[in-house]
């Protein structure tokens, strides 16, 4: 909502025209508590008003808001600026964990620090949402206003601080780590105020080592102690005691923050999203984001899809031709189309776990991404027509049909009216067709002129079975994402069938698909080589298939009889190997295809 009025006292202020109210109360020694009518939404508060509150008070505590789900939290925070992404996404779950490898996820104290210190860019705001907090004392988040510390320092102290530059080192076992150096005295990037940048040493699991540059160890330790005392000045320290439902927005540039220890019996579950400040859009950022939404990381698995049929039907010599270059361009345009449509359609969902994709779409702008999608579809269609015309339009109308159907399915996987991504088993069939069967058929068709029936059948069997094997591996990732998809109300195959059954389907697809892939390639190799050579060229693929199949079969067996939480705990560490499984089976299949070549077609 817009038009929100502000006050500096506890008088009520209208949030909307239907008499919803807010009230403000200054906190001591700094900060502002904002109370809204119970159940009000965060989006009802004007974003510019929130920026003004944080500029004036450093910390804003908002109470009375309707609760956020995990998926809603990044969308709320993004109203204030771009989100900082971590390997786990945008939302950091700050709660006690049994197997914690970092002190943040224990019930012990967290020393003062600023967020983003080990990254290239520190965020502007820290956006907290308290999911659950008990009434036991402890667990307060401590904020230190470093502009107040600077204001209370005398000239000699300021001179000592200006000369300080600390080096920070820690092993990267959580979402941050490495080594960097920073001056203690810096400028606030928005207001120009003098601020202090300092992180206290951590003597806990995943310790952080802190040393002053150009000072001997004893002098360095003395300066750490002096800074700690200065930062403890009572006029600069706010200890926030959490209540369930609290939303807290803090200025990460002006403040340092930490946490007090809390009792074993206390409940404390806080989610945090980091929000960046505005930054200029440059040609580099536009190109970077345009590349991100095309998912180049998938190319390692896409290249075998392109090269396999080409090598088996035309041989390596064809790869140097202009025709192959045109086919390759069409091939990747089709993949880019589907990936961009998915990024655009899922930009809100991706904010939680794939923040870099969501931010790429928002950075480019929805209109810009739509324009790129339309241009990609137009270019793919134009190339399809050109290939069909140059190779005989009447005989290659099916090429145009394959491309148009591929574009339609690629779009309908992610968007309505069909949105096949949320249609249970149809999700599996659509991915099998769009990622594997369709592109491989297209390449095979463009390299097929007059081929006997047996090679055609063998090629079709290879395409269908290879797609089944690879899609079975992808299905493991779908199973891993079950809770997130349920929260987002997306009826994927895992949601439709449940975790154990989904894993059994995956194991069956990998087992049968891999066996038929190997059989089809053996048929091709046997037409080209002696029996021994036929087996030799398939050894790497057979080993990769048996390894992957046995891994997924074992997961399916172990998921039986377990609760969903237990099954997910078992699945997730192993599912991280999915990219390796995809790569291993894809490239050993390509190796077999390259070994066999195209001579088998004429035998």
Account of the protein in words:
- By secondary structure, this protein is of the alpha+beta class.
- The chain folds into 3 domains: 67-275, 4-Layer Sandwich (Double-stranded beta-helix); 281-449, Orthogonal Bundle (Tetracycline Repressor, domain 2), CATH 1.10.357; 453-603.
- It has 21 helices and 17 strands.
- β3 (32-40), α1 (47-57) and β4 form a beta-alpha-beta unit.
- α7 (299-313) packs parallel to α21, α14 (453-480) runs antiparallel to α17 (499-528) and α14 packs antiparallel against α21.
- The radius of gyration is 29 Å and the shape is elongated.
The CATH fourth-level homologous superfamily of the largest domain = Clavaminate synthase-like
CATH architectural group of the largest domain:
4-Layer Sandwich
What is the overall pLDDT average? 91
Cα gyration radius (Å): 29 Å
Strand arrangement across the biggest beta sheet: 1-2-3-4-15-7-17-5
Distance from first to last alpha carbon: 73 Å
The structural class is alpha+beta
Question: Which CATH class of the largest domain is shown?
Answer: Alpha Beta
β-strand number: 17
Enter the CATH topology name of the largest domain.
Double-stranded beta-helix
Proportion of residues in extended strands: 5-15%
* Major beta-sheet overview: 8 strands, mixed
Q: Helical percent range?
A: 40-55%
Give the overall form: elongated
The total of helices stands at 21
**Low-pLDDT segments, ≥5 res:** 1-14
């Amino acid at each position: 909502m817009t038009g929100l009025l502000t006050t500096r006292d506890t008088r009520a202020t209208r949030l909307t025209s239907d008499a919803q109210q807010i009230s403000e109360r200054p906190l001591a020694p700094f900060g502002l508590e904002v109370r809204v009518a119970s159940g009000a939404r965060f989006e009802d508060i004007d974003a510019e008003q929130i920026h003004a509150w944080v500029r004036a008070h450093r910390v804003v505590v908002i109470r009375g808001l309707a609760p956020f789900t995990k998926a809603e939290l990044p969308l709320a925070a993004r109203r204030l600026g771009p989100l900082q992404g971590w390997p786990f996404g945008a939302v950091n779950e700050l709660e006690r964990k049994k197997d914690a490898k970092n002190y943040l996820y224990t019930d012990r104290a967290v020393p003062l620090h600023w967020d983003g210190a080990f990254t290239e860019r520190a965020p502007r705001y820290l956006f907290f949402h308290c999911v659950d907090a008990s009434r036991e004392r402890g667990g307060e988040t401590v904020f230190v206003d470093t502009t107040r510390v600077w204001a209370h320092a005398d000239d000699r102290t300021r001179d000592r601080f200006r000369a300080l530059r600390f080096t920070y080192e820690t092993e990267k076992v959580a979402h941050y780590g490495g080594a960097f150096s920073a001056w203690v005295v810096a400028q606030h990037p928005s207001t120009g105020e003098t601020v202090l940048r300092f992180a206290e040493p951590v003597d806990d699991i995943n310790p952080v080592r802190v040393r002053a540059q150009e000072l001997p160890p004893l002098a360095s330790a003395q300066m750490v102690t002096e800074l700690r005392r200065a930062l403890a000045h009572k006029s600069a320290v706010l200890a926030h005691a959490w209540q369930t439902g609290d939303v807290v927005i803090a200025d990460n540039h002006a403040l340092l923050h930490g946490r007090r220890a809390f009792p074993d019996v206390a409940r404390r579950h806080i989610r945090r999203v980091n929000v960046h400040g505005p930054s200029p859009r440059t040609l580099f950022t536009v190109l970077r984001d345009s590349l991100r939404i095309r998912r180049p990381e998938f190319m390692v698995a896409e290249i075998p899809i392109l090269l396999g049929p080409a090598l088996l039907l035309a041989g390596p010599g064809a790869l140097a031709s202009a025709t192959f270059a045109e086919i390759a361009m069409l091939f990747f345009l089709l993949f880019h189309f589907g990936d961009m449509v998915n990024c655009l359609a899922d930009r809100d969902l991706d904010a939680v776990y794939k923040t870099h994709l969501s931010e790429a779409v928002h950075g480019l702008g929805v209109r810009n991404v739509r324009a790129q999608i339309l241009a990609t579809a137009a270019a793919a269609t134009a190339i399809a027509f050109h290939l069909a015309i140059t190779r005989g339009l009447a005989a290659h109308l099916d090429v145009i049909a394959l491309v148009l159907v591929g574009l339609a399915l690629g779009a309908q996987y992610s968007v309505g009216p069909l949105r096949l991504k949320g249609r249970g088993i149809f999700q599996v069939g659509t991915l099998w067709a769009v990622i594997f069967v369709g592109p491989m058929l297209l390449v095979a068709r463009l390299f097929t002129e007059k081929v006997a029936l047996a090679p055609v059948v063998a090629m079709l069997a290879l395409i269908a079975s290879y797609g089944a094997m690879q899609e079975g591996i992808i299905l493991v990732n779908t199973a891993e994402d079950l809770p997130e998809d349920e929260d987002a109300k997306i009826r994927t195959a895992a949601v439709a069938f449940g975790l154990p059954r989904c894993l059994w389907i995956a194991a069956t697809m990998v087992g049968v698909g891999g066996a038929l892939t190997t059989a089809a390639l053996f048929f091709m190799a046997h037409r080209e080589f002696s029996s021994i050579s036929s087996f030799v060229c398939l050894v790497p693929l057979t080993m990769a298939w048996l390894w992957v199949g046995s891994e997924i079969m074992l997961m399916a067996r172990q998921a039986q009889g377990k609760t969903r939480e237990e099954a997910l705990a078992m699945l997730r560490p192993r599912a991280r190997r999915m990219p390796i499984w995809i790569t291993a089976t894809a490239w050993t299949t390509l190796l077999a295809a390259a070994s066999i070549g195209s001579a088998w077609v004429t035998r």
